[in-house]
Design a protein that fits this description.
The chain is mainly alpha-helical and about 170 residues long. It has 9 helices and no strands. Pfam families: HD_4 (PF13328).
Length: about 170
């Protein structure tokens, strides 16, 4: 039960249970779990990441923010390191969207390397999704392409600790 494979299966099963009633915002209503699995896949297949705790955190990265999972529950199930990475990439949903974005910008340069990996893979997955299709009830196609370009630059800048502002002039 303690092999890396068993741990990874246990983690993806936990995430699947937690997200079981959620759907993505694409027109197909893709099951939400496709997203965290895809984020972990970006890290393993494109990033060459083999650190199992980073891959676990990728699988679990939206459980605290978007489901009834508590940080203590993650810590009890998967240990303090994994729970800590998830906590670093979790926004406080009681704040306004604008305030959450502001805090992301403020915190990103000070995040651990592991949390930056998960955050960037998360953003990359979402940007590819935005490029692939228009979310239900949002944006025209052309606007998606504009956002794709701008947000990638934005995320890159803030994880480097640079000003996120300059792309706004483009
Ligand atoms: Mn996510």
């Amino acid at each position: 039960m303690d092999s890396d494979l068993a741990v990874l299966i246990e983690t993806v099963n936990f995430a699947a249970e937690k997200h079981k009633n959620q759907r993505r915002k694409d027109p197909d209503g893709t099951p939400y779990i496709n997203h965290p699995i895809g984020v972990a896949r970006i890290l393993s297949h494109e990033g060459g990441i083999t650190n199992i705790q980073v891959l676990q955190a990728a699988l679990l990265h939206d459980t605290v923010e978007d489901t009834n999972t508590s940080p203590a529950e993650l810590q009890a199930q998967f240990g303090a390191t994994v729970a800590g990475i998830v906590q670093e990439v979790t926004d406080d949903k009681s704040l306004s969207k604008q305030e959450r974005k502001r805090l992301q910008v403020e915190h990103a340069p000070h995040c651990s390397h592991e949390a930056k990996l998960v955050k960037l893979a998360d953003k990359l997955y979402n940007l590819r999704d935005l490029n692939r299709c228009t979310p239900v009830g949002q944006y025209c196609h052309q606007h998606c392409h504009y956002q794709y370009h701008c947000h990638f630059q934005y995320q890159y800048n803030i994880t480097k600790g640079q000003s996120p502002q300059h792309w706004k002039q483009q």
